[in-house]
């Protein structure tokens, strides 16, 4: 996570800045990645928002120091993921992660987005999370098109174009 992520954007000089922001304080967000399993890494943490819920996918090989500062846990093995929460007061890093989550929630007026923690390899929970990875070919009937390819194919069919 970049040093500016989770901090408010400066008002001056941000016109050329392509860093996404959220919330009333324009909190800087991490870079946007494609929604595919290929982007998930066992030593990383992936935050996804779908408009209704937030998901934090946590890889098996995440540094124990990061787990400790974020969740007060050295390992997530045998941890009930439904009781997990971000400990914002532990460090600058954890407070910035919490600020990103709060900013994303504040952008959805009238709806509180629940944060679901997904541990890599957690059968049902990971399968539920995976259905929102819309750029994976496996998430569509037949598994041979991504969402963008399917959408393009559908638009060509509606327009009467071949292919």
Task: Describe the protein.
With 163 residues, this protein is α+β, with helices and mostly antiparallel strands. Helices cover 27% and strands 13% of the residues. The strands form 2 sheets. It has a 3-stranded mixed sheet with strand order 3-4-5, with helices on one face. A two-stranded antiparallel sheet has the order 1-2. A hairpin with a 3-residue loop joins β3 and β4 (53-58).
Structural class: alpha+beta
Choose one word for the global shape.
globular
**Overall pLDDT score:** 82
Fraction of helical residues: 25-40%
Over all CA atoms, what is the radius of gyration? 18 Å
Helix and strand element order: EEEEHHEHH
Beta-strand segment tally: 5
Low-confidence stretches: 12-16
**How many helices?**
4
Keyword list:
163 residues; two-stranded antiparallel ribbon; 5 strands; 4 helices; alpha+beta
Topology overview:
Layout: E1 21-22, E2 27-28, E3 45-49, E4 53-58, H1 64-71, H2 92-106, E5 114-119, H3 123-130, H4 147-159
Parallel strand pairs: 4-5
Antiparallel strand pairs: 1-2, 3-4
Task: Write a concise synopsis of the structure shown.
The protein is α+β, with helices and mostly antiparallel strands. The protein has helices at 64-71, 92-106, 123-130, 147-159, and strands at 21-22, 27-28, 45-49, 53-58, 114-119.
């Amino acid at each position: 996570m970049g040093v500016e992520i989770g901090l408010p954007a400066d008002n001056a000089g941000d016109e050329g800045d392509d860093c996404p922001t959220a919330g009333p304080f324009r909190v800087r967000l991490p870079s946007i990645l494609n929604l595919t399993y290929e982007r998930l890494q066992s030593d990383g943490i992936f935050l996804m928002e779908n408009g209704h819920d937030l998901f934090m996918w946590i890889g098996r090989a995440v540094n124990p120091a990061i787990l400790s500062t974020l969740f007060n846990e050295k390992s997530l093995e045998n941890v009930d993921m439904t009781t997990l929460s971000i400990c914002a007061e532990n460090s600058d890093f954890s407070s910035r992660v919490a600020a990103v989550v709060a900013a994303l929630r504040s952008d959805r007026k009238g709806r509180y987005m629940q944060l679901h923690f997904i541990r890599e390899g957690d059968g049902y929970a990971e399968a539920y999370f995976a259905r929102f990875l819309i750029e994976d070919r496996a998430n569509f009937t037949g598994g041979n098109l991504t969402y963008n390819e399917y959408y393009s194919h559908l638009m060509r069919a509606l327009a009467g174009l071949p292919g």
